[in-house]
Amino acid sequence: MTNTSQEHAQSGYASVNGLELYYEIHGSGEPLVLLHGGLGVGSMFGDVLTSLSQSQQVIAVDLQAHGRTADIDRPLRYEHMADDIAALIQHLGFTKTNVMGYSLGGGVALRTAIQHPELVKKLVLISAPFKQSGWFPEVVAGMAQVNASGVEFMRETPMYQSYMSVAPKPENFPTLLDKVGVMMSEEYDWSAEVAALTMPVLLVYGDADSISPAHAAQFFELLGGGKRDADWNGSGMSNSRLAILPATTHYTVFLSPALVPIVTPFLDAPLPQAA
User: Fold this and answer.
1) Cα(21)–Cα(260) distance, rounded to whole angstroms?
2) Of 119, 109, 61, 63, which is closest to residue 89 (Cα–Cα)?
3) pLDDT tens track for 103-157
4) CB 61 within 8 A of CB 40
5) What element of type H or E holds 33?
6) Region class of 81: left (phi > 0), else alpha (psi between -120 and 50), else beta
7) Single pTM value for the model
8) What are the structural domains of the chain?
9) Contact at 8 Å (CB) between 59 and 52?
């Protein structure tokens, strides 16, 4: 592993599954793998990343074809990228890590927990559904329109500018749009696999998200939450948690000042005793 100093962070590339997967390590403490949203980069969390790194060892990753991780001849799939994250965890020598992802990165984080539960200690999902229909219909329709023809529209966005500033082949941005569009157009429903998860999960959404509060509640119920009164001593409480942030959208939730005070206590809490 080759690490270099970059703004008080270590950075490197892990050779996994044919990729040279870029990552940065910020802070020290319990490891937390942090996964960005579609068309984003690991650093997109801004002050949230900085705050998390005060108490966690945050490993911010650039997923396949995003940021500093060059694309390969492989479709973008949640399942493939989850295998990449599992391989990265092992590459870094961790037995288990906490994993946190936003939007597309939340889907990758969820698949990592489903496909490699032995590697995931706790899971934090920010504004991510467990099935495609969890997105509002107009959002699904918009996702189906994502393709290379949208390059001109994207030029003034932070996502385009971030990509252009760090990508090894900036000319591949249209290909990224095509691949992301195909990926987001595919139907999926992971409800049965979600219900089988045993690690603690924290779900976080905005109250004006691209995903309805009803879907968030359904997700929470699949994880065993919200099914009964917790009783005066909390004995009926599940191991998972649900947070709905007020006055927050899908496009602001990952930068919300309310996020870290919710995530950090969840990560710091002792693991529940095995039954």
Assistant:
1) 26
2) 119
3) 999 999 999 999 999 999 999 999 999 999 999 999 999 999 999 999 999 999 9
4) no
5) strand 30-35
6) alpha
7) 0.95
8) 4-227+236-268 (3.40.50.1820)
9) no
